[in-house]
Specification:
This protein is an all-alpha fold. The protein has a domain of 75 residues. Helices cover 80% and strands 0% of the residues.
C-alpha cells in the first residue's frame, strides 16, 4: 500500500504546532518516516500524540481559567465582581465551577443581594458534589433568613437538621431555633430550644435555654 498517497485523517502540521516541545522529536521522526514505520505503528503513535496534545491544551485551558478567576477576585469589587463571576461560571471548567459559585455566593451575601446569593448556592448544590451539598443547602437557608423569609427558612432548616453531620447538627439547630422564633412558629422554636438545652455541653448556657423554652411555651 502506498502510504504517501494515503490521506492522513488529521492535520499533522497543525498538530505539530500545538504539541509540547518534548514531543517534537517523536512527531518529526514519525512525519519523516511514515513508509518505513508502517501505518499501523504510526497510527498508534498518532493516538498517543493526539492524547498528549489534548491533555496539554486542557491543562493550559484550566490554568488560564484559574488565572482569570484570580484576576476577577483581585481586580473587581461588589456588583462588578458578582457580574464577572456570573459570566465566568457559565463557561468555567468543571474543576473551577465550585470555586466560582462559592465566591459569587460570598460576595452576594456581603452585598446583601440574597436572591443572587441563593441562586449561587443552588448552582453549587447542582454540581452534585457530596462534599459541598450540606454547605450549599445551609447557605440557601441562611439567605432565606437574611431576606426575612423565615417560614421558608424553618422548612429548609428542619429538613437540613435531620441529615446534618453530627459536628454541624447543633449549629443547624441553633439557626432553626432563631428562624422559628422570628417566624413565630412557636412549636418549632420550643422543640429546637429544647434540643439545644438537652445537648448543651456548657452549663452556663443551659439556664438561658431552659428559660427560653418556658418563655416560648407560654405563647403556644
Amino acid at each position: 500500500m502506498d502510504l504517501e498517497n494515503k490521506q492522513i485523517p488529521i492535520d499533522l502540521r497543525t498538530l505539530e504546532q500545538n504539541v509540547p516541545d518534548k514531543l517534537h522529536p517523536v512527531l518529526d521522526f514519525m512525519l519523516g518516516n511514515l513508509r518505513q514505520i508502517g501505518w499501523a505503528v504510526t497510527g498508534i503513535i498518532l493516538v498517543v500524540a493526539v492524547y498528549a496534545v489534548t491533555s496539554h491544551i486542557r491543562k493550559g485551558n484550566v490554568e488560564k481559567a484559574q488565572d482569570e478567576l484570580g484576576l476577577i477576585i483581585v481586580q473587581k469589587l461588589g456588583a462588578e465582581r458578582m457580574s464577572a463571576l456570573e459570566t465566568y461560571a457559565k463557561t468555567a471548567p468543571s474543576d473551577l465551577k465550585a470555586k466560582a459559585y462559592l465566591e459569587l455566593a460570598r460576595v452576594a451575601m456581603d452585598e446583601k443581594d440574597f436572591d443572587k446569593a441563593q441562586t449561587a448556592w443552588k448552582d453549587l448544590e447542582g454540581l452534585g458534589d457530596p462534599n459541598l451539598t450540606f454547605t450549599a443547602k445551609l447557605g440557601q437557608a441562611k439567605c432565606l433568613m437574611f431576606a426575612g423569609k423565615n417560614k421558608e427558612a424553618v422548612t429548609a432548616l428542619t429538613a437540613l437538621a435531620a441529615t446534618a453531620p453530627a459536628a454541624a447538627k447543633r449549629g443547624v439547630t441553633a439557626q432553626l431555633a432563631s428562624a422559628a422564633e422570628a417566624a413565630q412558629d412557636w412549636p418549632a422554636a420550643v422543640k429546637a430550644y429544647q434540643e439545644l438545652s438537652s445537648t448543651s455541653a456548657n452549663d452556663q448556657d443551659k439556664p438561658y435555654l431552659d428559660a427560653k423554652v418556658e418563655q416560648l411555651k407560654s405563647r403556644l
